[in-house]
């Protein structure tokens, strides 16, 4: 947990550290431009398609989650898989809200989406930057005070990278979203996933100190002499899930790079 917190503070840390990096001319790929949360990775695909997909995915996941709660009770949220399933549902809810906001602004002409342009660095559609605007500020999605332009954008990206380590229907929904969206996937944000998992495990430890309950997963039982080995093995097994999504996004990035004959930085 300490290492994860240090990573978060280093890369998603204070505005002072972000300001220092901008002064040195360093781009911070961890931050999104406000348009990245609702536009697609390829300009030929209208953002309305991403919006429609997110709404359908949210409706599907919410329906399944509601059915589980009705059939099995609220106590199913006691399980890690159901908590992360809920997290995926939250991602599509937040993503749908930001897509609706972005598409509405685009229709009103507030986002400059009516002008044509291709980001040669990322291979995606962008609006032109006014001459008197700071290019560094716009590209990093920060306001004039060096703070994130919209904390919802950062929250969406964090929840997105937390939700990828999943299985079954939610993983399929997320894969479809990955194919359409233009979200970045900085690998350091695995620290959030580690933190999320550690908080769940510590919660289980504290709960079982005061309440006599069956462990949600047998390998969490601390009375077993093999408990440390189980904890280590399960933690390692989650890395391929996270790495799989990172590789898929890298493949998509390379494909867009070849399509536009220009390197794309994620």
Automatic annotation (TrEMBL):
Identification of the protein by name: Transmembrane protein
GO CC terms of this entry: membrane
Top-level taxon in the UniProt lineage: Eukaryota
Record keywords: Membrane, Transmembrane, Transmembrane helix
TM regions (residue ranges): 51-71, 77-94, 190-210, 230-249
């Amino acid at each position: 947990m300490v290492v994860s917190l240090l990573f978060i503070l280093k890369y998603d840390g204070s505005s002072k550290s972000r300001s220092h990096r901008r002064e040195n001319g360093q781009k911070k790929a961890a931050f999104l431009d406000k348009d990245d949360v609702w536009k697609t990775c390829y300009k030929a695909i209208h953002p309305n398609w991403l919006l429609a997909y997110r709404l359908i995915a949210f409706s599907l996941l919410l329906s399944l989650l509601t059915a589980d709660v009705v059939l099995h009770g609220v106590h199913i949220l006691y399980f890690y898989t159901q908590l992360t399933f809920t997290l995926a549902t939250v991602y599509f809810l937040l993503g749908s809200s930001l897509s609706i906001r972005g598409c509405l602004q685009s229709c009103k002409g507030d986002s400059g989406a009516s002008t044509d342009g291709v980001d040669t660095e990322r291979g995606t559609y962008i609006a032109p930057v006014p001459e008197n605007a700071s290019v560094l500020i716009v590209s990093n999605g920060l306001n004039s005070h060096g703070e994130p332009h919209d904390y919802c954008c950062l929250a969406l990206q964090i929840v997105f990278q937390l939700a990828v380590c999943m299985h079954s229907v939610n993983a399929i929904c997320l894969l479809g979203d990955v194919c359409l969206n233009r979200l970045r996937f900085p690998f350091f944000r695995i620290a959030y996933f580690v933190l999320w998992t550690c908080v769940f495990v510590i919660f289980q430890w504290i709960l079982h100190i005061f309440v006599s309950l069956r462990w949600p997963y047998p390998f969490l039982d601390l009375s077993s002499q093999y408990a440390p080995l189980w904890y280590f093995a399960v933690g390692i097994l989650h890395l391929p899930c996270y790495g799989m999504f990172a590789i898929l996004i890298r493949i998509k990035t390379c494909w867009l790079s070849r399509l536009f004959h220009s390197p794309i930085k994620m």
